[in-house]
Specification:
The structure holds two protein chains of two kinds. By secondary structure, chain A is mostly helical. Chain A has helices at residues 19-44, 49-73, 83-86, 93-117, 120-147, 158-181, 188-214, 221-232, 236-260, 264-286; strands at residues 4-8, 12-13. Classes of the chains: A mainly alpha, B alpha+beta. Strand 1 (4-8) of chain A pairs antiparallel with strand 2 of chain B, so a sheet runs across the interface.
């Protein structure tokens, strides 16, 4: 006997987590990436810390706000969100994430107040806890994906490293865009360093995705099928456009910008990087949901 | 007590009595299923075979849905059943992402996650689950896995071809199949062409996220 096919079944749910979740991960990368890099640049270049003391909380609050908004919108019972604080279940990465992000929001508000009142010491006091919270806010989604046993391609800790690299891409791209919008007020040294961070993290993230696609040992048939969906299936346009936009174009343009000191290329690279990051996160999120589980 | 389920696939004739009884007993809305029976045709005429596979929650001992639920809406009962608290559920659908057996759905009326509970409300008053009662061939065997004298324990002991779905995921399902096959139990071992086939349209539902 050869071949088997389903001839009778009920309609199965396909995409459970859609574009709202992709947007959640994308916006969170910008918020946490700009915080992590902002702290680094404040420490390294105290003579130009005003730029980062201003934009770290502004970018953080805007994009963590988007993250929280889409998270709540995606709930089927959005007005029960508070239960996550009153009835927490701490084996769940969703719970841990909600608590960590809430604490991170408090740090961002303190950072904003610090900039608004000019009280630098206030931000200095919350820098270390803020850095830790931003780090865990970045990676908790990888924990959720790791706990999503059904979707075998989302593997911890590879997903965690990928998310940290996404935060570095998003943070550096966000600062390069703000710098360009303000007529390149940053020191050239800082702009170049932001470019190198964008270049390096794009390269490493691309290596992880391409490695997964071509060289990784597929630990299950499900993972193998997901990779086929990514490369050739219904999300392939998102995936390949994401690869080009998030990695290839930014690396090329930032390379030109830093090599020839033509920094307008750096902010074009940054815009592409942010668009590409959403595309690739969306493809990665949707692909495992296109296969039947039962 | 550790309640478990066993389906003898050689006895199942795909009559759907279990699925209908489940829907009626639990008021399961249209387009949602706690228990469904999938037909899989294998081979080419005249050498063909049809598999009937009842699919429901596996009430795993290491349940990914229980672990990922942020508010403990999914929780274990002392008898091993993985139960749902509809009032507690926030509708994040994490459980749907975690369950490798596609056994959980968002109820379109309550907007909460729901699934087979082995008819916990019936068991509480000493009744069998509705699907067990409705099955005309006694293909569904239900009982206490910890009791060596229970029918399910004896059945498991006397059959060597006991299978569970996706054992490699270490979820330790308490739902067993006897006389099953890879084609019947592995969703990737068969094609799932969308469109009209036997009696109905095989398809996927559109995006069922919050909005």
């Amino acid at each position: 006997m050869v071949g088997a096919e389903v001839t009778f079944d009920v309609a199965l749910p396909k995409v459970v987590w859609g574009w709202l979740v992709s947007t959640n991960m994308w916006a969170k990368s910008i918020a946490t990436g700009s915080f992590l890099l902002g702290i680094y640049f404040i420490k390294k270049y105290p003579e130009q810390d005003n730029f980062f003391r201003k934009w770290l909380p502004i970018l953080g609050i805007i994009f963590i706000g988007i993250t929280l908004l889409v998270t709540v919108l995606d709930l089927h019972h959005m007005f029960r969100f508070w239960k996550i604080f009153l009835h927490p279940h701490f084996t769940s990465a969703v719970t841990l994430g909600a608590w960590v992000v809430s604490a991170f929001v408090i740090v961002l508000l303190v950072a904003f107040w610090s900039w608004a009142t000019g009280n630098k010491k206030l931000l200095d006091r919350v820098m270390i806890p803020g850095f830790i919270l931003a780090f865990f806010s970045t990676i908790y989604t990888a924990g959720i994906m790791g706990e999503a046993t059904a979707r075998e391609v989302w593997v911890f800790p590879a997903e965690m490293i990928s998310m940290l690299l996404s935060a570095m891409i998003a943070g550096s791209a966000a600062y390069l865009i703000v710098d360009a919008l303000y007529g390149q007020i940053l020191k050239e040294e800082i702009r170049r360093e932001l470019g190198y961070i964008l270049f390096g993290s794009s390269g490493l993230a691309a290596a992880m995705f391409i490695g997964e696609l071509f060289f990784a040992k597929m630990h299950s048939e499900f993972s193998y099928e997901v990779i086929k969906v990514l490369a050739f299936g219904e999300v392939a346009p998102f995936f390949w456009l994401g690869i080009v936009f998030a990695f290839i174009i930014p690396m090329t343009l930032v390379g030109i910008a830093n090599e020839y000191r033509r920094y307008r290329y750096a902010w074009i690279a940054s815009v592409f990087a942010l668009i590409g990051l959403w595309l690739i996160k969306h493809a990665w999120l949707i692909a495992p949901q296109t296969l039947p589980l039962s | 007590m550790r309640l478990g389920f066993l389906v003898d696939l050689s006895r199942c004739m795909g009559c759907m009595a279990c699925a209908v009884a489940c829907k009626a007993e639990n008021n399961v809305p249209l387009h949602s299923w706690r228990l469904r029976v999938k037909y899989i045709d294998q081979g080419e005429f005249p050498d063909v075979k049809r598999h009937f596979v009842p699919l429901r929650c596996n009430h795993c001992e290491n349940a990914p849905c229980e672990r990922i639920c942020p508010v403990s809406a999914l929780h274990y009962l002392p008898n091993g059943i993985v139960n749902v608290d509809h009032e507690r559920c926030i509708g994040c659908a994490s459980c749907m992402m975690a369950c490798p057996y596609n056994a959980i759905y968002i109820d379109p009326i309550t907007n909460s996650a729901d699934k087979c509970t082995y008819c916990a409300h019936r068991i509480e008053v000493g009744l069998m689950p509705a699907c067990v009662v409705a099955c005309p061939t006694h293909a569904n065997i239900f009982g206490d896995l910890d009791d060596p004298e229970s029918e399910i324990s004896k059945y498991l002991k006397s059959h060597r071809d006991v299978m569970v779905r996706k054992p490699e995921l270490n979820t330790h399902p308490k739902h067993f199949y006897v006389r099953g096959s890879t084609v019947a139990l592995d969703p990737l071992a068969s094609e799932r062409p969308e469109g009209f086939t036997l009696f109905t349209e095989v398809k996927f539902l559109e995006h069922i996220g919050g909005h």
